[in-house]
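Extended Data, record Phosphate transport system permease protein PstA
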Amino acid sequence: MKQWFNSGKPWIWLTAGSVSISLIAVIGLLILIGWRGLSFFWPAQIHEMDVRANDGSISTIIGEVYDTETIPLERLQESGVQLDNFNEPTLDRWLIKIGNREYVPLDFTWVLKPQIVRDETPSDLAKLERSKDGNFYGYVVDVLENGESVANSENVHQILEERIERVVEINEQAADLQDTEIGAINYQLNQLRLERRALDLEGQLTAEEEARISAAEQQLREDYQVLEQELFELRDQASRDEVVMRDMRGVEVTLPMYRMLAVYFPNDMNLVEKLGHFFVQIGKFVSEDPREANTEGGVFPAIFGTVFMVLLMSVIVTPFGVVAAIYLHEYAGKNAVTRLIRIAVINLAGVPSIVYGVFGLGFFVYMVGGSLDQIFYPEALPSPTFGTPGVMWAAITLAILTLPVVIVSTEEGLSRIPSTLREGSLALGATKAETLWRIIIPMASPAIMTGLILAVARAAGEVAPLMLVGVVKSAPMLPVDGNFPYFHLDRKFMHLGFHIYDVGFQSPNVEAARPLVYATSFLLVTVIIGLNLTAIGVRNHLREKYRSLEH
Protein backbone atom coordinates (compact mmCIF):
# COMPACT_ATOMS: atom_id res chain seq x y z
CA MET A 1 0.00 0.00 0.00
CA LYS A 2 2.82 2.39 0.93
CA GLN A 3 4.55 1.60 -2.35
CA TRP A 4 1.27 2.26 -4.19
CA PHE A 5 0.95 5.66 -2.52
CA ASN A 6 4.56 6.51 -3.24
CA SER A 7 4.04 5.66 -6.92
CA GLY A 8 1.67 8.64 -7.25
CA LYS A 9 -1.19 6.61 -8.74
CA PRO A 10 -3.70 7.57 -5.98
CA TRP A 11 -3.25 11.22 -6.86
CA ILE A 12 -3.78 10.46 -10.53
CA TRP A 13 -7.06 8.69 -9.71
CA LEU A 14 -8.05 11.48 -7.34
CA THR A 15 -7.44 14.12 -10.00
CA ALA A 16 -9.27 12.10 -12.64
CA GLY A 17 -12.21 11.60 -10.26
CA SER A 18 -12.38 15.29 -9.45
CA VAL A 19 -12.36 16.22 -13.13
CA SER A 20 -15.02 13.61 -13.87
CA ILE A 21 -17.29 14.84 -11.06
CA SER A 22 -16.86 18.44 -12.19
CA LEU A 23 -17.62 17.49 -15.78
CA ILE A 24 -20.72 15.53 -14.76
CA ALA A 25 -21.92 18.46 -12.63
CA VAL A 26 -21.47 20.94 -15.48
CA ILE A 27 -23.17 18.67 -18.02
CA GLY A 28 -25.99 17.96 -15.57
CA LEU A 29 -26.50 21.67 -14.96
CA LEU A 30 -26.61 22.38 -18.70
CA ILE A 31 -29.11 19.54 -19.23
CA LEU A 32 -31.30 20.85 -16.40
CA ILE A 33 -31.27 24.43 -17.71
CA GLY A 34 -31.77 23.26 -21.29
CA TRP A 35 -34.66 20.93 -20.40
CA ARG A 36 -36.48 23.47 -18.26
CA GLY A 37 -35.74 26.27 -20.71
CA LEU A 38 -36.61 24.55 -23.99
CA SER A 39 -39.80 23.04 -22.54
CA PHE A 40 -41.04 26.64 -22.24
CA PHE A 41 -41.52 26.67 -26.04
CA TRP A 42 -43.36 23.36 -26.34
CA PRO A 43 -47.12 23.86 -26.93
CA ALA A 44 -48.88 23.02 -23.68
CA GLN A 45 -52.38 21.60 -23.51
CA ILE A 46 -55.17 24.05 -22.67
CA HIS A 47 -57.35 22.72 -19.86
CA GLU A 48 -60.94 23.54 -19.08
CA MET A 49 -61.57 22.77 -15.41
CA ASP A 50 -64.46 22.98 -13.04
CA VAL A 51 -63.06 23.84 -9.60
CA ARG A 52 -64.99 23.61 -6.35
CA ALA A 53 -64.29 26.48 -3.92
CA ASN A 54 -64.32 26.22 -0.11
CA ASP A 55 -67.89 27.49 0.03
CA GLY A 56 -69.06 24.73 -2.32
CA SER A 57 -69.47 26.92 -5.41
CA ILE A 58 -68.06 25.70 -8.72
CA SER A 59 -66.23 27.94 -11.17
CA THR A 60 -64.70 27.23 -14.58
CA ILE A 61 -61.03 27.86 -15.34
CA ILE A 62 -59.41 27.78 -18.79
CA GLY A 63 -55.63 27.90 -19.10
CA GLU A 64 -52.28 26.16 -19.35
CA VAL A 65 -50.63 24.17 -16.56
CA TYR A 66 -47.34 25.95 -15.93
CA ASP A 67 -46.06 24.10 -12.89
CA THR A 68 -46.98 21.35 -10.45
CA GLU A 69 -45.83 21.00 -6.87
CA THR A 70 -46.57 18.80 -3.88
CA ILE A 71 -47.34 20.53 -0.58
CA PRO A 72 -48.21 19.19 2.90
CA LEU A 73 -51.87 19.25 3.93
CA GLU A 74 -50.95 20.82 7.26
CA ARG A 75 -49.59 23.88 5.47
CA LEU A 76 -52.95 24.44 3.77
CA GLN A 77 -54.89 23.96 6.98
CA GLU A 78 -52.72 26.53 8.73
CA SER A 79 -53.55 29.03 5.98
CA GLY A 80 -57.28 28.46 6.49
CA VAL A 81 -58.00 26.09 3.59
CA GLN A 82 -60.14 23.08 4.58
CA LEU A 83 -60.59 20.06 2.33
CA ASP A 84 -63.43 17.70 3.15
CA ASN A 85 -62.92 13.96 2.72
CA PHE A 86 -59.19 14.33 2.09
CA ASN A 87 -56.89 12.64 4.59
CA GLU A 88 -53.63 12.25 2.67
CA PRO A 89 -50.57 13.97 4.24
CA THR A 90 -49.68 15.73 0.97
CA LEU A 91 -51.49 16.90 -2.13
CA ASP A 92 -50.67 18.34 -5.53
CA ARG A 93 -51.49 21.79 -6.76
CA TRP A 94 -51.21 23.24 -10.24
CA LEU A 95 -50.14 26.68 -11.36
CA ILE A 96 -52.53 27.64 -14.15
CA LYS A 97 -51.95 30.49 -16.59
CA ILE A 98 -55.45 31.75 -17.27
CA GLY A 99 -54.47 34.93 -19.15
CA ASN A 100 -57.35 37.33 -19.95
CA ARG A 101 -55.75 40.07 -17.85
CA GLU A 102 -58.43 42.66 -18.55
CA TYR A 103 -61.10 40.45 -16.95
CA VAL A 104 -59.29 38.80 -14.04
CA PRO A 105 -57.11 40.32 -11.27
CA LEU A 106 -54.17 37.96 -11.91
CA ASP A 107 -53.41 35.93 -15.01
CA PHE A 108 -52.00 33.06 -12.90
CA THR A 109 -53.75 31.06 -10.21
CA TRP A 110 -53.02 28.01 -8.05
CA VAL A 111 -55.53 25.15 -8.17
CA LEU A 112 -55.61 22.28 -5.66
CA LYS A 113 -55.98 18.94 -7.42
CA PRO A 114 -58.63 17.56 -4.97
CA GLN A 115 -60.82 20.58 -5.76
CA ILE A 116 -60.92 19.81 -9.49
CA VAL A 117 -64.35 18.41 -10.36
CA ARG A 118 -63.86 18.22 -14.14
CA ASP A 119 -60.75 18.46 -16.31
CA GLU A 120 -61.01 18.38 -20.11
CA THR A 121 -58.91 19.50 -23.09
CA PRO A 122 -61.38 20.33 -25.90
CA SER A 123 -59.78 20.50 -29.35
CA ASP A 124 -61.38 23.86 -30.24
CA LEU A 125 -59.93 25.79 -27.29
CA ALA A 126 -57.86 28.68 -28.65
CA LYS A 127 -54.85 30.56 -27.37
CA LEU A 128 -54.56 34.11 -28.68
CA GLU A 129 -51.08 35.59 -28.40
CA ARG A 130 -51.35 39.37 -28.06
CA SER A 131 -48.93 42.28 -28.00
CA LYS A 132 -50.66 43.72 -24.93
CA ASP A 133 -52.50 42.24 -21.93
CA GLY A 134 -50.93 38.82 -22.44
CA ASN A 135 -52.59 35.71 -23.83
CA PHE A 136 -56.33 35.19 -24.14
CA TYR A 137 -57.85 31.72 -23.74
CA GLY A 138 -61.32 30.68 -24.82
CA TYR A 139 -63.52 29.55 -27.68
CA VAL A 140 -63.62 31.36 -31.03
CA VAL A 141 -67.20 32.43 -31.73
CA ASP A 142 -67.00 34.82 -34.69
CA VAL A 143 -64.76 37.12 -36.75
CA LEU A 144 -65.97 40.64 -37.49
CA GLU A 145 -64.99 43.09 -40.23
CA ASN A 146 -66.15 46.63 -39.53
CA GLY A 147 -68.64 45.18 -37.07
CA GLU A 148 -70.10 42.64 -39.55
CA SER A 149 -69.65 38.88 -39.30
CA VAL A 150 -67.43 37.34 -42.00
CA ALA A 151 -67.26 33.74 -40.76
CA ASN A 152 -69.42 30.81 -39.80
CA SER A 153 -68.96 27.90 -37.43
CA GLU A 154 -67.23 25.80 -40.11
CA ASN A 155 -64.55 28.23 -41.28
CA VAL A 156 -64.16 30.57 -38.30
CA HIS A 157 -60.75 29.16 -37.34
CA GLN A 158 -59.37 29.49 -40.86
CA ILE A 159 -60.74 33.02 -41.28
CA LEU A 160 -59.28 34.05 -37.93
CA GLU A 161 -55.80 32.76 -38.84
CA GLU A 162 -55.90 34.56 -42.20
CA ARG A 163 -57.02 37.84 -40.65
CA ILE A 164 -54.36 37.66 -37.95
CA GLU A 165 -51.66 37.07 -40.58
CA ARG A 166 -52.93 40.17 -42.39
CA VAL A 167 -52.88 42.24 -39.21
CA VAL A 168 -49.37 41.08 -38.30
CA GLU A 169 -48.09 42.05 -41.76
CA ILE A 170 -49.68 45.50 -41.51
CA ASN A 171 -48.30 46.04 -38.00
CA GLU A 172 -44.83 45.06 -39.20
CA GLN A 173 -45.08 47.64 -41.99
CA ALA A 174 -46.19 50.28 -39.48
CA ALA A 175 -43.38 49.40 -37.06
CA ASP A 176 -40.80 49.45 -39.85
CA LEU A 177 -42.07 52.84 -41.03
CA GLN A 178 -41.97 54.23 -37.50
CA ASP A 179 -38.52 52.88 -36.69
CA THR A 180 -36.79 53.78 -39.96
CA GLU A 181 -38.18 56.75 -41.88
CA ILE A 182 -40.07 58.46 -39.05
CA GLY A 183 -37.25 57.69 -36.63
CA ALA A 184 -34.72 59.17 -39.05
CA ILE A 185 -36.74 62.39 -39.32
CA ASN A 186 -36.99 62.70 -35.53
CA TYR A 187 -33.23 62.15 -35.28
CA GLN A 188 -32.52 64.85 -37.89
CA LEU A 189 -34.88 67.29 -36.16
CA ASN A 190 -33.05 66.72 -32.90
CA GLN A 191 -29.69 67.27 -34.63
CA LEU A 192 -30.94 70.56 -36.07
CA ARG A 193 -32.11 71.63 -32.63
CA LEU A 194 -28.66 70.89 -31.21
CA GLU A 195 -26.99 72.70 -34.12
CA ARG A 196 -29.09 75.81 -33.49
CA ARG A 197 -28.24 75.77 -29.78
CA ALA A 198 -24.52 75.24 -30.51
CA LEU A 199 -24.45 78.24 -32.86
CA ASP A 200 -26.33 80.29 -30.29
CA LEU A 201 -23.82 79.43 -27.55
CA GLU A 202 -20.95 80.40 -29.85
CA GLY A 203 -22.64 83.64 -30.87
CA GLN A 204 -22.76 82.58 -34.52
CA LEU A 205 -26.52 82.15 -34.92
CA THR A 206 -26.99 84.69 -37.69
CA ALA A 207 -30.22 85.35 -39.56
CA GLU A 208 -28.94 83.30 -42.51
CA GLU A 209 -28.14 80.30 -40.28
CA GLU A 210 -31.52 80.59 -38.55
CA ALA A 211 -33.29 80.70 -41.92
CA ARG A 212 -31.33 77.67 -43.17
CA ILE A 213 -32.11 75.60 -40.07
CA SER A 214 -35.77 76.69 -40.07
CA ALA A 215 -36.14 75.76 -43.74
CA ALA A 216 -34.61 72.34 -43.10
CA GLU A 217 -36.93 71.81 -40.11
CA GLN A 218 -39.97 72.86 -42.16
CA GLN A 219 -39.09 70.38 -44.91
CA LEU A 220 -38.61 67.59 -42.37
CA ARG A 221 -41.95 68.39 -40.72
CA GLU A 222 -43.69 68.25 -44.08
CA ASP A 223 -42.10 64.87 -44.76
CA TYR A 224 -43.13 63.81 -41.26
CA GLN A 225 -46.77 64.72 -41.92
CA VAL A 226 -46.82 62.56 -45.05
CA LEU A 227 -45.30 59.59 -43.24
CA GLU A 228 -47.57 60.12 -40.23
CA GLN A 229 -50.63 60.02 -42.46
CA GLU A 230 -49.35 56.78 -44.00
CA LEU A 231 -48.81 55.38 -40.50
CA PHE A 232 -52.35 56.31 -39.44
CA GLU A 233 -53.74 54.62 -42.55
CA LEU A 234 -51.89 51.42 -41.72
CA ARG A 235 -53.21 51.51 -38.17
CA ASP A 236 -56.76 52.06 -39.44
CA GLN A 237 -56.39 49.02 -41.70
CA ALA A 238 -55.11 46.94 -38.79
CA SER A 239 -58.02 47.95 -36.54
CA ARG A 240 -60.65 46.91 -39.10
CA ASP A 241 -61.11 43.34 -37.83
CA GLU A 242 -62.26 41.96 -34.48
CA VAL A 243 -62.73 38.53 -32.98
CA VAL A 244 -65.52 37.39 -30.67
CA MET A 245 -64.38 34.96 -27.96
CA ARG A 246 -66.23 33.09 -25.23
CA ASP A 247 -64.06 33.10 -22.11
CA MET A 248 -64.07 30.93 -19.00
CA ARG A 249 -66.90 32.98 -17.50
CA GLY A 250 -69.12 31.97 -20.42
CA VAL A 251 -69.25 35.58 -21.58
CA GLU A 252 -68.74 36.54 -25.22
CA VAL A 253 -66.24 39.39 -25.52
CA THR A 254 -65.10 41.29 -28.60
CA LEU A 255 -61.34 41.77 -28.92
CA PRO A 256 -59.57 44.11 -31.37
CA MET A 257 -57.43 42.14 -33.79
CA TYR A 258 -54.69 44.78 -34.19
CA ARG A 259 -53.20 43.50 -30.92
CA MET A 260 -53.12 39.89 -32.10
CA LEU A 261 -49.85 38.17 -32.96
CA ALA A 262 -50.96 34.58 -33.52
CA VAL A 263 -53.68 32.06 -32.70
CA TYR A 264 -53.01 28.45 -31.71
CA PHE A 265 -55.13 25.40 -31.02
CA PRO A 266 -52.65 23.25 -29.03
CA ASN A 267 -55.17 20.56 -28.16
CA ASP A 268 -55.74 19.93 -31.87
CA MET A 269 -52.04 19.70 -32.84
CA ASN A 270 -50.32 16.47 -33.85
CA LEU A 271 -46.65 15.76 -33.14
CA VAL A 272 -45.38 17.30 -36.39
CA GLU A 273 -47.38 20.47 -35.79
CA LYS A 274 -46.10 20.69 -32.24
CA LEU A 275 -42.51 20.36 -33.43
CA GLY A 276 -43.09 23.12 -35.98
CA HIS A 277 -44.64 25.31 -33.29
CA PHE A 278 -41.68 24.56 -30.99
CA PHE A 279 -39.09 25.81 -33.49
CA VAL A 280 -41.23 28.80 -34.51
CA GLN A 281 -41.47 29.89 -30.87
CA ILE A 282 -37.70 29.55 -30.40
CA GLY A 283 -37.19 31.69 -33.51
CA LYS A 284 -39.55 34.34 -32.15
CA PHE A 285 -37.82 34.24 -28.79
CA VAL A 286 -34.41 35.09 -30.24
CA SER A 287 -35.64 37.56 -32.89
CA GLU A 288 -38.42 39.64 -31.29
CA ASP A 289 -38.52 42.42 -28.73
CA PRO A 290 -39.78 41.79 -25.19
CA ARG A 291 -43.33 42.62 -24.17
CA GLU A 292 -45.32 43.03 -20.99
CA ALA A 293 -42.42 44.18 -18.78
CA ASN A 294 -40.08 41.48 -20.20
CA THR A 295 -42.37 38.62 -19.12
CA GLU A 296 -43.39 37.79 -22.69
CA GLY A 297 -42.04 38.14 -26.20
CA GLY A 298 -38.43 37.75 -27.25
CA VAL A 299 -35.00 38.84 -26.04
CA PHE A 300 -33.34 40.06 -29.24
CA PRO A 301 -32.30 43.46 -27.78
CA ALA A 302 -30.71 41.64 -24.82
CA ILE A 303 -28.83 39.26 -27.14
CA PHE A 304 -27.63 42.13 -29.31
CA GLY A 305 -26.62 44.22 -26.29
CA THR A 306 -24.72 41.34 -24.70
CA VAL A 307 -22.77 40.44 -27.84
CA PHE A 308 -22.10 44.07 -28.80
CA MET A 309 -20.86 44.97 -25.33
CA VAL A 310 -18.60 41.89 -25.16
CA LEU A 311 -17.10 42.56 -28.60
CA LEU A 312 -16.49 46.20 -27.71
CA MET A 313 -14.90 45.14 -24.42
CA SER A 314 -12.66 42.66 -26.30
CA VAL A 315 -11.46 45.37 -28.68
CA ILE A 316 -10.54 47.56 -25.71
CA VAL A 317 -9.00 45.03 -23.33
CA THR A 318 -6.86 43.03 -25.78
CA PRO A 319 -4.38 45.73 -26.90
CA PHE A 320 -4.02 47.19 -23.41
CA GLY A 321 -3.54 43.77 -21.81
CA VAL A 322 -1.03 42.62 -24.41
CA VAL A 323 0.99 45.85 -24.28
CA ALA A 324 1.09 45.74 -20.46
CA ALA A 325 2.21 42.10 -20.49
CA ILE A 326 4.91 42.74 -23.10
CA TYR A 327 6.26 45.65 -21.09
CA LEU A 328 6.31 43.69 -17.82
CA HIS A 329 7.97 40.64 -19.37
CA GLU A 330 10.22 42.06 -22.08
CA TYR A 331 11.20 45.55 -20.93
CA ALA A 332 10.60 46.04 -17.20
CA GLY A 333 13.51 45.28 -14.92
CA LYS A 334 13.41 42.40 -12.43
CA ASN A 335 13.12 44.56 -9.34
CA ALA A 336 10.80 45.25 -6.43
CA VAL A 337 8.68 47.70 -8.40
CA THR A 338 7.96 45.11 -11.11
CA ARG A 339 7.09 42.48 -8.50
CA LEU A 340 4.78 44.98 -6.80
CA ILE A 341 3.03 45.70 -10.10
CA ARG A 342 2.53 41.98 -10.73
CA ILE A 343 1.08 41.52 -7.25
CA ALA A 344 -1.25 44.45 -7.87
CA VAL A 345 -2.40 42.95 -11.18
CA ILE A 346 -3.11 39.60 -9.53
CA ASN A 347 -4.99 41.27 -6.67
CA LEU A 348 -7.12 43.23 -9.13
CA ALA A 349 -8.54 39.91 -10.34
CA GLY A 350 -9.99 39.33 -6.87
CA VAL A 351 -11.73 42.68 -6.46
CA PRO A 352 -15.55 42.26 -6.32
CA SER A 353 -17.16 43.21 -9.59
CA ILE A 354 -19.57 45.68 -7.97
CA VAL A 355 -16.55 47.75 -6.90
CA TYR A 356 -15.60 48.09 -10.58
CA GLY A 357 -19.17 49.22 -11.22
CA VAL A 358 -18.93 51.94 -8.57
CA PHE A 359 -15.57 53.03 -9.98
CA GLY A 360 -16.94 53.10 -13.52
CA LEU A 361 -19.95 55.15 -12.45
CA GLY A 362 -17.89 57.67 -10.50
CA PHE A 363 -14.87 58.00 -12.78
CA PHE A 364 -15.97 57.17 -16.32
CA VAL A 365 -19.61 58.27 -16.26
CA TYR A 366 -19.57 61.31 -13.99
CA MET A 367 -16.00 62.55 -14.36
CA VAL A 368 -14.91 61.58 -17.90
CA GLY A 369 -18.37 61.60 -19.43
CA GLY A 370 -19.31 64.84 -17.71
CA SER A 371 -16.11 66.47 -18.96
CA LEU A 372 -16.79 65.28 -22.52
CA ASP A 373 -20.26 66.80 -22.34
CA GLN A 374 -18.85 70.13 -21.18
CA ILE A 375 -16.21 70.19 -23.95
CA PHE A 376 -17.88 68.61 -26.97
CA TYR A 377 -21.65 68.61 -26.29
CA PRO A 378 -22.48 71.86 -24.44
CA GLU A 379 -25.51 72.37 -26.67
CA ALA A 380 -27.18 69.23 -25.29
CA LEU A 381 -26.83 70.23 -21.63
CA PRO A 382 -28.38 69.87 -19.12
CA SER A 383 -29.36 66.57 -20.79
CA PRO A 384 -26.18 64.46 -20.69
CA THR A 385 -24.75 62.74 -23.74
CA PHE A 386 -21.81 60.76 -22.37
CA GLY A 387 -22.26 61.87 -18.75
CA THR A 388 -24.81 59.11 -18.24
CA PRO A 389 -24.49 55.30 -18.17
CA GLY A 390 -24.10 53.78 -21.61
CA VAL A 391 -22.68 50.84 -23.53
CA MET A 392 -19.23 52.45 -23.93
CA TRP A 393 -18.75 52.94 -20.20
CA ALA A 394 -20.00 49.40 -19.56
CA ALA A 395 -17.46 47.99 -22.03
CA ILE A 396 -14.58 50.02 -20.56
CA THR A 397 -15.54 49.04 -17.01
CA LEU A 398 -15.60 45.35 -17.91
CA ALA A 399 -12.32 45.81 -19.82
CA ILE A 400 -10.67 46.98 -16.60
CA LEU A 401 -12.33 44.11 -14.72
CA THR A 402 -10.94 41.50 -17.13
CA LEU A 403 -7.59 43.21 -17.80
CA PRO A 404 -5.67 41.13 -15.17
CA VAL A 405 -6.80 37.91 -16.88
CA VAL A 406 -5.38 39.00 -20.24
CA ILE A 407 -2.14 40.28 -18.70
CA VAL A 408 -1.45 37.12 -16.71
CA SER A 409 -2.31 34.81 -19.61
CA THR A 410 -0.16 36.77 -22.07
CA GLU A 411 2.78 36.83 -19.65
CA GLU A 412 2.52 33.08 -19.24
CA GLY A 413 2.65 32.68 -23.02
CA LEU A 414 5.66 34.99 -23.30
CA SER A 415 7.52 33.12 -20.58
CA ARG A 416 7.14 29.81 -22.46
CA ILE A 417 8.97 31.14 -25.52
CA PRO A 418 12.65 30.06 -25.34
CA SER A 419 15.13 32.88 -24.89
CA THR A 420 17.26 31.33 -27.64
CA LEU A 421 14.73 32.51 -30.22
CA ARG A 422 15.11 36.09 -29.05
CA GLU A 423 18.92 35.80 -29.01
CA GLY A 424 19.01 34.19 -32.46
CA SER A 425 16.81 36.91 -33.95
CA LEU A 426 18.97 39.67 -32.45
CA ALA A 427 22.14 37.89 -33.62
CA LEU A 428 20.81 37.91 -37.19
CA GLY A 429 20.49 41.70 -37.08
CA ALA A 430 16.82 42.16 -36.18
CA THR A 431 15.92 44.89 -33.73
CA LYS A 432 14.10 44.12 -30.51
CA ALA A 433 10.90 45.63 -31.91
CA GLU A 434 11.15 43.46 -35.03
CA THR A 435 11.79 40.41 -32.89
CA LEU A 436 8.71 41.12 -30.82
CA TRP A 437 6.48 41.85 -33.80
CA ARG A 438 7.57 39.02 -36.09
CA ILE A 439 8.45 36.22 -33.65
CA ILE A 440 7.46 36.73 -30.02
CA ILE A 441 3.92 38.07 -30.44
CA PRO A 442 2.91 35.52 -33.15
CA MET A 443 4.16 32.66 -30.95
CA ALA A 444 2.35 34.10 -27.93
CA SER A 445 -0.90 34.68 -29.86
CA PRO A 446 -2.50 31.40 -28.64
CA ALA A 447 -1.90 32.50 -25.04
CA ILE A 448 -3.33 35.94 -25.88
CA MET A 449 -6.46 34.27 -27.27
CA THR A 450 -6.69 32.12 -24.15
CA GLY A 451 -6.74 35.25 -22.01
CA LEU A 452 -9.36 36.76 -24.29
CA ILE A 453 -11.50 33.61 -23.99
CA LEU A 454 -11.38 33.82 -20.18
CA ALA A 455 -12.14 37.55 -20.34
CA VAL A 456 -15.15 37.01 -22.61
CA ALA A 457 -16.49 34.22 -20.43
CA ARG A 458 -16.36 36.40 -17.33
CA ALA A 459 -17.56 39.63 -18.94
CA ALA A 460 -20.57 38.04 -20.65
CA GLY A 461 -21.90 36.76 -17.33
CA GLU A 462 -21.30 39.87 -15.22
CA VAL A 463 -24.40 41.77 -14.10
CA ALA A 464 -23.62 43.76 -10.93
CA PRO A 465 -21.30 46.41 -12.47
CA LEU A 466 -23.53 46.75 -15.53
CA MET A 467 -26.46 47.79 -13.37
CA LEU A 468 -24.50 50.94 -12.52
CA VAL A 469 -22.87 51.79 -15.85
CA GLY A 470 -25.34 51.14 -18.64
CA VAL A 471 -27.76 48.23 -18.55
CA VAL A 472 -31.50 48.89 -18.33
CA LYS A 473 -34.71 46.89 -18.08
CA SER A 474 -35.92 48.02 -21.50
CA ALA A 475 -33.97 49.99 -24.12
CA PRO A 476 -36.11 51.80 -26.71
CA MET A 477 -33.28 51.78 -29.29
CA LEU A 478 -30.32 49.55 -30.08
CA PRO A 479 -26.77 50.96 -29.89
CA VAL A 480 -26.56 50.48 -33.67
CA ASP A 481 -29.02 51.93 -36.20
CA GLY A 482 -29.18 53.60 -39.61
CA ASN A 483 -28.56 57.14 -38.34
CA PHE A 484 -25.08 58.66 -38.54
CA PRO A 485 -22.65 57.84 -36.89
CA TYR A 486 -24.44 54.43 -36.84
CA PHE A 487 -22.71 53.28 -33.63
CA HIS A 488 -24.24 55.17 -30.69
CA LEU A 489 -22.01 54.23 -27.79
CA ASP A 490 -23.74 56.67 -25.44
CA ARG A 491 -26.98 54.68 -25.43
CA LYS A 492 -28.10 52.33 -22.70
CA PHE A 493 -28.56 48.68 -23.60
CA MET A 494 -30.17 45.44 -22.51
CA HIS A 495 -28.24 42.41 -21.27
CA LEU A 496 -29.21 38.77 -20.93
CA GLY A 497 -27.83 38.50 -17.39
CA PHE A 498 -29.81 41.51 -16.20
CA HIS A 499 -32.86 40.21 -18.06
CA ILE A 500 -32.64 37.00 -16.01
CA TYR A 501 -32.42 39.00 -12.79
CA ASP A 502 -35.30 41.27 -13.79
CA VAL A 503 -37.66 38.46 -14.82
CA GLY A 504 -36.71 36.18 -11.95
CA PHE A 505 -36.80 38.69 -9.10
CA GLN A 506 -38.70 41.78 -10.28
CA SER A 507 -41.59 40.04 -12.03
CA PRO A 508 -45.08 40.44 -10.48
CA ASN A 509 -45.36 36.63 -10.45
CA VAL A 510 -41.98 35.03 -9.86
CA GLU A 511 -43.28 31.46 -9.90
CA ALA A 512 -44.91 31.94 -13.27
CA ALA A 513 -41.79 33.59 -14.72
CA ARG A 514 -39.53 30.66 -13.79
CA PRO A 515 -39.71 28.92 -17.22
CA LEU A 516 -38.70 32.17 -18.93
CA VAL A 517 -35.76 32.47 -16.52
CA TYR A 518 -34.55 29.00 -17.50
CA ALA A 519 -35.00 29.78 -21.20
CA THR A 520 -33.01 33.02 -20.95
CA SER A 521 -30.33 31.33 -18.84
CA PHE A 522 -29.92 28.61 -21.44
CA LEU A 523 -29.67 31.27 -24.14
CA LEU A 524 -27.01 33.19 -22.17
CA VAL A 525 -24.95 30.01 -21.75
CA THR A 526 -25.35 29.33 -25.48
CA VAL A 527 -24.15 32.85 -26.36
CA ILE A 528 -21.11 32.51 -24.08
CA ILE A 529 -20.27 29.09 -25.51
CA GLY A 530 -20.63 30.48 -29.04
CA LEU A 531 -18.29 33.39 -28.33
CA ASN A 532 -15.78 31.08 -26.67
CA LEU A 533 -15.88 28.54 -29.50
CA THR A 534 -15.22 31.33 -31.98
CA ALA A 535 -12.22 32.51 -29.96
CA ILE A 536 -10.98 28.92 -29.54
CA GLY A 537 -11.20 28.40 -33.30
CA VAL A 538 -9.10 31.52 -33.89
CA ARG A 539 -6.61 30.40 -31.25
CA ASN A 540 -6.22 26.94 -32.80
CA HIS A 541 -5.73 28.49 -36.23
CA LEU A 542 -3.01 30.78 -34.89
CA ARG A 543 -1.37 27.89 -33.07
CA GLU A 544 -1.14 25.85 -36.26
CA LYS A 545 -0.03 28.86 -38.30
CA TYR A 546 2.92 29.75 -36.07
CA ARG A 547 3.87 26.25 -34.96
CA SER A 548 6.81 26.27 -37.41
CA LEU A 549 8.42 29.13 -35.47
CA GLU A 550 9.03 26.78 -32.55
CA HIS A 551 11.48 24.69 -34.57
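Summary. The longest helix spans residues 156-201.
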